[in-house]
Design a protein that fits this description.
The complex is a heterodimer of chains A (323) and B (279).
Chain A lengths: L13 H53 L2 E2 L7 E2 L3 H8 L1 H33 L4 H13 L2 H12 L6 H10 L13 H26 L3 H9 L4 H29 L3 H6 L11 H10 L4 H29 L5
Antiparallel strand pairs in A: 1-2
Chain B lengths: L1 H35 L3 H6 L13 H8 L2 H32 L5 H11 L8 H11 L6 H8 L2 H12 L3 H9 L4 H12 L1 H17 L2 H6 L8 H12 L4 H21 L1 H11 L5
Helix pairs in contact in B: 1-14, 3-14, 4-7, 4-8, 4-11, 8-11, 9-10, 11-15, 13-14
The chains are: A mainly alpha (323), B mainly alpha (279).
Amino acid sequence: MTSSTLPAPPRETAESRRTRTLSNAAVRASKARRRREQGWAALFLAPQFLALAVFMLVPFGFAVVLSFMNWDGLGDKSWAGLANYREQLSDPEFHDAVLNTLLLGAITVPVGLALALLVAMALNNVRGKTFYRVVYFLPVVTSSVAVSVIWQIILASGDLGLLNNTVHDWFGITLPDWLDNENWVMVAIAAVTIWSSLGLNVVIFLAGLQAIPSHLGEVARIDGAGPVRVFRHITLPLLSPTIFFSFVIAVISSFQAFDQIYVLVDPKRNEGARTIVYQVYDLGFRDFRFGASSAAALLLTVMTVIVTVIQFRAQKRFVHYES
Amino acid sequence: MVALLRRRLGAIALHTLLIAGGVVMLFPFLWMMLTAFKGQQQMIQDPLGWLPDPWRPENFPDALGMMPFGRAYWNSFYIATVVVVATLLSASMAAYAFARIEFPFSKTLFMVFLLTQMVPSQVTLVPLYVMLSKFGWIDTHWALIVPAIANPFAVFMMRQFIRSVPVELEEAARLDGANRWTIFTRIVLPNVRPGLAALGIIVFLGSWNSFLYPLIFLNSEDNYTVPLLLSQFKGQHGGLNYGLVLAASAVSVIPMLIAFLIGQRRIINSMAASGLGGR
């Protein structure tokens, strides 16, 4: 790096010799300057880097080591080899956890994003945006615990449940016991998750929509394109980077769902609500099997990385970036 | 004429759709408020009666008296504030180094920062618990403050903001002999104030609403944060006395909602810009 800044003198004259010594001095000075700059860089980076190393990188490494061990947190550690992974991969509870997690994502991601896009497009064309934005955003600033407490009495079975009793009284339809039924509980959790994150995706999409120059749509309309074609060929491509970003985030957060599940339905009572993060929590902090818990967590990481890589591979075909 | 009528009808259709959605968004909050005033008697005999009969405002002082909500509020508030200040300072420092200082492996190091964000925080749960108990930090607020400072997303976001500050401003100061720290505090930080505000809001909300870490790292009631206290309250006093639980829930939610209504424009714009929402 240093040598590249040195000019090579073509021939030795008094003049060029003077320049060379000068440039040597300049090189020395710039070396000192660079070292000083590196000192500043180290200083500026130190706090974040230290926090990152101590509270993210080291624990991650530790998790990898733990996943190959048996340990209850107090007694002796012993090597387990691949046993923890083998156990999780053949454990029906873990299989259920993976399937439930995927089911949650399969509902919340497409339905949540499509609803958000619909609301954002409606908002883009009406007056009173500010009012609607606030209304749709309220659940986003409400803690997931409070959200779950509220929804629990709405979705409850028996006399307490507002939704099921109302639907039964008005339409005579008997709905499933959302929170107590193994097959329906994930649908209920997905609905609550969509409700509480809709506003965030709406305002992100709305910001994206408002960045699209309105004359593009007008030109197309004058050329005779209907609203569907304007949406397909102008709105959607121009919004695709925003949608892609929200898509990636939505998938990752559906993989990490925990709060609403823990409060809304403790999977101890309804196995249908067991997700991978719940499995990690259950193994680690109820059974105190730190090795098995770490193995489950690392399997979740592998799953996240694979799915994210697939998404980034696929984006070339679906996402339109302006050059 | 026809076009105008059509546009009117379109607007009416859109508003109908948006209002229907808005009702779905608001109704649970309304139901929470109504139920919060219902007595235990009513919850058993007629839990679905619309209005509380009789109104029992006593639910609120009762709920507040059963568990230390005031304490939890203070805990949540000061933890979130410390996390915000420490994160903003350390993240913009790192972001400044990445944006403006040349040093070897700058790109590689930045990639490392970005990659750590891919690791789900749940993976570090067990090891972090083990480490924090070695530090003697379990059941203290250190466990919620210090690890939360590591925030690669904040570094990434601040780097974007700092890069938009004109370099010429810095160069002028350097000619006057200002060093990097002076430039950072006197020139860069004042110029990224909107970015700092946006990030501050996101980090504050993230800390305020976080649940998993408090659930695992805290044991004694006096140390609880608001969401943890609410979940424990529900566990202990739940049963059939839902009026009480929802009064507690309302207490935990309302101040935040008021703060949101006051700062809604800024809060919504920050979250929209980040596209992440601190979760």
